[in-house]
Amino acid sequence: MFKNKIFVLMEMEEYKTKFIDFLLKTRALKVGGDFSLKSQRTSPWFVNVGDFNDGESTAALGEFYADSILNSKTEFNLLYGIPEKGNALAVATAIGLAKKGKNVPWFFTRKTPKEYGEATNLSQAERIKALVVGRAPKDNQSIVQLDDVFTAGDAKYEARTVLQSLGNFILPLLTIAVDRQEIGIVGKSAIEEYVSKTGTKVVSIVNASEIYNSLKERKLVPEKDLERFANYLRIYGIDKVRESFGKIPEQTIIQREKSVIPACDVETIEELEKIVMATADNEKIGGYKVGFELGLGYSLPKVVETIRKHTDKPIIYDHQKAGTDILQTGLNFARVCKKSGVDAVILFPQSGPETERSWIYQALDKGLKVIVGGRMTHPGYAVSEGGFITDEGAMNMYRLASRIGINNFVVPGNKPEVITQIRKVIEEEEGVKNAHYFAPGFIGKQGGKIEEAGKVAGPRWGAIVGTGIYAAPDMKIATEEVTSQI
Fold it and tell me: In this model, does residue 452 exceed pLDDT 90?
């Protein structure tokens, strides 16, 4: 597991700490486990504000919302609850504010099929009468909006449209319970985008960083669960969160700076064992790559057991190509690989950025090391070669992995010019230090030359060699020949 940086807990407002304790007491905050979010992400932490559905918890929640609003120093006249969950929040928060000496009215709007858009011929008073429950708002009043969470923001934009159909109001503030401080699919914060588009400030009672820091400082949950929490924020957090937590720590898979990794793409355990026995004592052999042929033909634990009889060098599993399925399968993939005993996995996340984040997170979360690829060795892969994947899209797979903190990458060994392009993106543009490259595509049908790849691959790289070793008449001699070129 990863060692977290030491964080200094900034002095939080007392109500924030009390709210975190309230979440823990009511078990609305859960840390540890795998929780499915509406976004389809799998998170190690979760808050369910919907659990507050009795008098005592709703009253307490209303006071916490009141504290957050008062702390924002916002001038306002009314509270508006965004349908549907905001309806009860408006009432509870008005009561909470009254207890603190500020008596303000509340209202919410009926959830109807967009009559506000079709009823432009109605007067303002008629529209308000048709839609408003509670105190009717008046032109030029300042309204604070309330909701439980902020995901994509669709309900918030719709609520603004409803309000704007009722009159001319000032909308200075939107208050939510917990800000998860996550980026969306395209890498931007939905909250930051909402603020930019609308000019409405968004505040939360607490945010993810505050929850993490409070739990860590007071040692309220196990350290292992905190490590998972931190790694989730390193991958999914907004820019300022990822900057404060830092990237995923560098991973060392191969101990040697330059090595050969036999690609054990054979069909039987007996063939695998022959490869390992012929190569394991060569110091320039850095590890072993196994694929689906053995994994499906036997079982991955059996494959690992066979290799471990002869060497403790790292075992890399290449599923040809993992990371191309939906988000949730990344969890199952990581569990199976970890249980089998492999050390690292190769991902080619061609299904998009959200899949890439998910599969990387799940692998790291289960204690696996990660190697990410984007360009492949065969002809007709990238658009520039007549293929389907755009050149820029392939490079973006490397970019996203680099920003998370991945420092191990697959590059096409038979395309030196592409290796040069990839290194520029990873090292110069993204600033990755100590990048380690794994290059297949040598000898046999793919035709790459180890010496040529070595000239452009940098100081840390490994040549992945398959048939050049296991199809040779004498594997020991072939291994010595191949490793002499590193």
Answer: yes
